[in-house]
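Run log, item B.
One chain of 138 residues. Sequence copied directly from the ordering sheet:
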Amino acid sequence: MTSSLVALAAGLVFGLGLILSGMGNPAKVQNFLDFFGTWDPSLALVMGGAIAVGLVAFTWAKHRKTSLLGEPMQLPTASAVDRRLLTGAALFGTGWGLAGFCPGPAVMNLATLQSEVWLFVAAMLAGMLLQHWWATRR
């Protein structure tokens, strides 16, 4: 029960951060990525803040055996930059640039009931299922 409440609280804080930062607005994201047009550098501060918080949090977490809730720490161990990583990053960036959404803001924007958001999330889930199917075939 405690884990579920903490997960809910973390999700709410994450969603609030997306709203306050403007990451939930596809036009703001696309303007950030439009270097030669209507470039909006404000999201660079959001990314910088996220990287700083993540750096501190992961550095602290590496020295722990269990989480604050007593669960075993499960940090990523892969460090190779390979074709799969680069392909995934390119596809993610292309989708983010074209649609103005990445997974977190897209799920948050489902509440707007806009058909474009629902279509994006459906396509995103289809892509995830296709990738999972492809990976299990190998």
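Observations after the first pass:
- The chain has a mean pLDDT of 88.
- The chain has two domains: 1-77, 80-138.
Flagged for discussion on Thursday.
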